[in-house]
Design goal:
The protein has eight helices and two strands; from the N terminus they run ααβαααβααα. It has helices spanning 3-28, 47-76, 84-108, 112-123, 138-155, 160-177, 189-204, 215-219; strands at residues 77-78, 158-159. It has a two-stranded parallel sheet with strand order 1-2. The protein is globular, with a radius of gyration of 17 Å.
């Protein structure tokens, strides 16, 4: 890993921050809020608590990823261009494994006791917007990052380019699924699918546990 790698990582984080800010504005602005899927009647959490939770979770997530790169970067990643086919294969393999594991992790979060003491925090925001995508109990955030890092280690070493793609998809999709927006244009078809699927999850709780790929829910009968 070199300076260019960390610059690219910082650019992805900056992009995610701007995307989160814009999507949150879009869901609440007078001109675009008509595209919002649902708006809760009341918020169950004070604004200060929400902002403090999301800031601390963002800092913790950043620290965990940097810690992973510090302790495992030399064994989990390799430098150099791997070739387009290898890049696609590495990235897709890790994301598929992560999402498969996350399906069961997320489903397990809805066990009565885990939901009560951990996952309930996220569902306090009934129909979240993008800036509430990381409003979580810290243990839940740690678990999700551990699944991603573990998936990388299992398939590693992977290219540093593949890591950047994986990190981009992981972080960006988490923002998009919480956008609470449905924009009526064919260019936003995938965006709308993710947002609507996760809206169903927040409304019904027992459907759509996957984060990226719908076929895990389809395979295990929880897709709606």
């Amino acid at each position: 890993m070199n300076t260019t790698f960390f610059i690219a990582l910082a650019v992805i984080m900056l992009y995610d921050g701007l995307l989160m800010t814009w999507l949150t504005w879009a869901a609440t602005s007078s001109s675009l809020k008509k595209y919002r899927i649902r708006t809760p009647k009341t918020y169950q959490i004070p604004a200060f608590r929400k902002h403090l939770n999301t800031i601390l979770n963002n800092l913790m997530s950043l620290g965990l990823f940097l810690g992973f790169l510090y302790f495992f970067g030399d064994t989990a990643l390799y430098s150099g261009w791997p070739g387009a086919a290898h890049l696609l294969g590495e990235s897709l393999a890790v994301l598929l494994l992560y999402d498969f594991l996350y399906y069961f992790y997320h489903r397990g979060m809805h066990h009565r006791l885990v939901l009560k003491y951990v996952h309930r925090v996220h569902h306090l925001v009934r129909f979240p917007t993008a800036n509430e995508s990381i409003f979580l109990h810290p243990l839940e955030a740690i678990g999700a990052i551990a699944l991603l890092c573990g998936s990388i280690l299992l398939f590693g070493p992977i290219s540093s380019y593949s890591f950047l793609i994986i990190f981009f998809v992981y972080s960006t999709v988490n923002i998009l699924v919480h956008s609470n927006l449905d924009i009526p244009h064919p260019a936003f078809r995938l965006f709308n699918f993710w947002a609507r699927a996760h809206d169903v999850h927040h409304a019904k709780l027992k459907y759509n546990y996957s984060s990226i790929f719908p076929f895990w829910d389809q395979a295990f009968g929880t897709f709606k």
